[in-house]
Every structure is written in structure tokens, then in C-alpha cells.
Design brief:
The chain has about 475 residues and is mainly α. The chain contains 17 helices and no strands. The chain has one domain.
């Protein structure tokens, strides 16, 4: 527990004069504040030549026809509002704060249902032609199909079916996210929501450790929010992926106040990772530090990477009591058990290579009644080796395509906000790929949010006039 010519699945709005190539930044934060319909578009090759022989008069757009054409895009705004509310409930789970809010327990489900009910007819109205499909969507749908095919041969079929239903919600909302996050303002809203939630979690993690509210042998924190973040290792994974996003927003934003906020978020998230005492989180922290130093440094990359790793060592040495021994010791009972489960999952994956054991059925074959504690072998042992290959491709594809756009932006010798945000999302995906090697999170929301951010940013950057039109961009 996801590129062909730039996606133009909407009706372009043309502008005359040089103002059409300008970008508006009203609040000085480095983001384009215009709506989706105002994006400047490149003319199709040969369009002007083909039109000079067409003597037919252009149809006159009446206010009524303009309203009808704009209606689907306006309704996509409603779909985005539903997605935003859904993510809010996923992150904050307000019904856990008080018994008086128990009536909100199923709010996320009903918000998702209403969002999908609005999204589907709107998307069909926008997508009259098949074009510009995202490969990550096909990969995640293939993974969903592989999970379905694993159910008949599972030992606990009802449990596998229930798990598939839960995973289908993740996939459907991911598809909604890919299609409705079409403006910088929407992408920024989701990123800010994730950062605010992460600040709450990291602050609570540090406070829990300070007050001694610990779980495992008086060492591990519990977490202030349940669900995805009740496990300290899962919380560490989330915070590891949020650090590069905060760093990317730091470089992408203008103004000392905003830069100070994002820098403070990054430091808070690092402190939160330390408070979880997660070894996987520590390894992920080392990797994202190295990735950020390598991608952001123009020169002396090795020197920057060494400086980043030195910062991590300072964190270890100056960390709370027991942290150094926790992250360096690999022979304790927990580490030995996890190593045993990893070997067991690899063995079962080779014994059931096509369809696996059944979704979430590994625990029934475990030596200690635990999960595999590895996202890759979790998919391989439960859904089959082909599904594991699909899952790996789902992780690698956005990295490769974002990297292509980032390199082209870098070739313009002007590192704008898209460049720094792409660096942040790439590093976040790297952090997930490393940290998830120690966790069974393949079917959970973490990576699907990140891949959704990557697709949205890639679409925006490819449609930006800052990116040169080349064959590699179009494909």
C-alpha cells in the first residue's frame, strides 16, 4: 500500500497582443493566479496556413453558447472543492477530536460519492476525444485489475474483497485528482493543505515525546491523528515526503515572510521525523537530503551532498536520548522480525508469481502474523510479480517525466517556480520509494497524492511559455 503532446482537453481562449504571453502574479508569491481558462496556449502548427484558404465566416459566440462551453469547467471547480474536502477529512479526521463529531465518521465517504457523481458527467463532456491520457492512470488501473484478479485464489476471500473496495476508493479519487487539478491555484491549495496537516502532526509528535506520551517500550510516540498517521513509522514516511515539498515551495516563493514560513515547516518536519524514532524514516531523510542537494546545486554538487549528510549526522548526534542507538542498531527483535518477514514475502512471491496470495492476505501466511513491512514485496506476494512490476513503473514514470521537464526548464537558464516545485516533488517521490521499502503502504494514499501532484505540475509546466517547444516536451 501514477508524455504525448501537452494535454489540451479544454477549449483554448486566445489573446491578442503581447499581453497574452504574460503571466499574472497578484500576491507576489511566485505563482500564477489566473484561472485555468486564462492559460496562454501555443497555436497548433500549420493552423494559420490552413485557415487562410477558409472563407467561411466564423460562428458568432452568443452569451448563451459561451456559458454552455464554460459550464463543464465550472463544474470541475465543484469537483475540485469535493476533492479538497475529501483530503481535509483524510488528513485531519475531526471526528477523532470529540465524541460530539461522531456524525462525521462517514463524511469522507459521502463527499467522495458526491464528488464522483459530479465529476463523471463533467469529464465525459470535456473529453469528447481520447487524447493526452496519462500513463500513470493506466498503470494504476492495471494495478487495480491485478488486485481484483488476486481475490479468487485468496485464503480469506471476504477480507481480500473488502481490501479491494477500499483500494478502489484510492484509485478513483486519484483519477479525479489527476483530471481536476488543472491550475496552479488548485495545486497550491492541495500543497498548502498537506503542509498545514503535516505541521499539526509534526508539532504533536514533538510534544508527545516531550511529555512522555510513548508507546513501544517507552520509546515510540503514538501520533495525534489516527488512520494513516497513528503508526509512528507511517507518520515518519509522510513527514519525509513533505520536507522536499516545503523546500521546493521555499525556493519557488517570493518574499522573506513566505520563505521563512516554508523553511520553518521543513525544520519542523525534520524534527518530527526524529521524534518518531523511525529507522526507515531516518534512511528516507538521508536520501531526500542527498537528492535535494544534488538537484538544487549548480556547482560543487558533491560538496553540497556532503553538507546535507553532515546535517543529518548532526541531527543524529544532537537527537534525543536513545535515537542514535535506535537508528544504528539492526539486531534488535523488531529488526530481526522485519528481516524475517521480508524473506518470507520474497519466498511466497516466488511460490505464487502470477496472482499472489490475495490482497492483504500475506498476514495469514506470516511467521509472526504481521505484514511484510515492504511495499514492493507486499504487492509482489499478494498480487503477483506482474503487479509488482506495474507498481514500480507507477513510481518511476512520474520521476522520469518530471525530470525531463525539469531539465528542459533548466536549459532555459532561468530556474522559476516550476523548476523548484518539480525538484521538490521528485525528491518526495524518492523519499517515498526509499522509506516504503520498510513499510506495507502500497495501497494507502501517500504515493497517490504525490503522483497526482507530479502530473498536475507537469501539465502546468508543459503549457507554460517558460518551457521551450521541443519534441521531448511534446512526447
Amino acid at each position: 500500500m501514477q508524455r504525448n503532446p501537452p494535454i489540451m482537453d479544454y477549449e483554448p481562449v486566445t489573446r491578442s497582443g503581447p499581453a497574452g504571453a504574460q503571466r499574472d502574479d497578484f500576491d507576489g508569491d511566485g505563482f500564477d493566479d489566473r484561472g485555468f481558462d486564462d492559460q496562454p496556449l501555443r497555436p497548433e502548427p500549420g493552423l494559420a496556413e490552413s485557415r487562410q484558404f477558409d472563407a467561411r465566416p466564423s460562428p458568432v459566440a452568443t452569451p448563451k453558447s459561451q456559458w454552455k462551453r464554460a459550464l463543464p469547467r465550472r463544474i470541475h471547480g465543484v469537483s475540485f472543492a469535493g476533492l479538497f474536502l475529501f483530503m481535509f477529512f483524510i488528513y485531519f479526521r475531526p471526528y477523532e477530536l470529540s465524541q460530539h463529531l461522531d456524525f462525521l465518521k462517514n463524511a469522507a465517504f459521502w463527499i467522495a460519492v458526491l464528488t464522483i457523481a459530479i465529476f463523471l458527467p463533467t469529464q465525459m463532456g470535456l473529453e469528447k476525444k481520447r487524447r493526452g491520457r496519462q500513463p500513470e492512470v493506466f498503470l494504476v488501473l492495471a494495478l487495480l485489475l491485478a488486485a481484483l484478479l488476486s481475490i479468487p485464489g485468496s485464503l480469506d476471500t471476504p477480507w481480500a474483497w473488502t481490501s479491494w473496495i477500499e483500494y478502489s476508493k484510492v484509485v478513483v479519487m486519484f483519477v479525479v485528482m489527476v483530471n481536476v487539478v488543472r491550475t496552479e491555484k488548485r495545486l497550491r491549495a492541495l500543497l498548502y493543505l498537506a503542509l498545514v496537516a503535516s505541521c499539526v502532526m509534526a508539532t504533536a509528535a514533538v510534544n508527545d515525546y516531550r511529555l512522555g506520551r510513548l508507546l513501544e517500550s517507552g520509546l515510540r510516540i503514538e501520533g495525534v491523528i489516527g488512520g494513516l498517521f497513528s503508526n509512528p513509522n507511517d507518520l515518519a514516511l509522510h513527514l519525509v515526503t513533505m520536507i522536499p515539498l516545503a523546500v521546493g515551495l521555499f525556493f519557488a516563493s517570493k518574499g522573506p515572510a513566505k520563505k521563512l514560513i516554508f523553511a520553518g515547516c521543513a525544520v519542523l518536519f525534520i524534527t518530527g521525523v526524529v521524534a518518531t524514532f523511525s529507522r526507515g524514516g531516518f534512511v528516507g531523510l538521508v536520501c531526500i537530503m542527498a537528492a535535494l542537494a544534488w538537484k538544487l546545486a549548480r556547482k560543487n554538487r558533491i560538496l553540497f551532498a556532503i553538507g546535507g549528510l553532515g546535517l543529518v549526522l548532526v541531527v543524529v548526534v544532537a537527537g534525543p536520548g536513545g535515537y542514535q542507538s535506535r537508528v544504528t542498531e539492526g539486531t534488535d527483535a523488531s529488526a530481526v522480525a522485519r528481516t524475517g518477514e521480508l524473506k518470507r514475502s520474497v519466498f511466497l512471491m516466488t511460490r505464487h508469481p502470477l496472482f499472489g496470495l490475495g490482497m492483504n492476505n500475506f498476514i495469514l501466511f506470516s511467521n509472526t502474523s504481521h505484514a511484510s513491512h515492504n511495499a514492493y514485496t507486499q504487492v509482489g506476494s499478494e498480487l503477483g510479480i506482474p503487479a509488482m512490476v506495474i507498481y514500480i513503473l507507477f513510481l518511476i514514470t512520474p520521476l522520469k517525466r518530471l525530470g525531463k521537464v525539469r531539465r528542459q526548464l533548466e536549459s532555459t537558464r532561468s530556474r522559476g517556480r516550476y523548476y523548484y516545485l518539480s525538484v521538490g516533488i521528485e525528491a518526495s517521490l524518492i523519499g517515498y520509494m526509499v522509506t516504503s521499502f520498510f513499510l506495507s503502504v502500497a495501497y494507502l494514499w501517500y504515493v497517490y497524492f504525490l503522483v497526482g501532484y507530479a502530473i498536475a505540475l507537469r501539465r502546468l509546466s508543459e503549457e507554460s511559455p517558460e518551457l521551450p517547444v521541443t519534441k521531448s516536451t511534446a512526447n
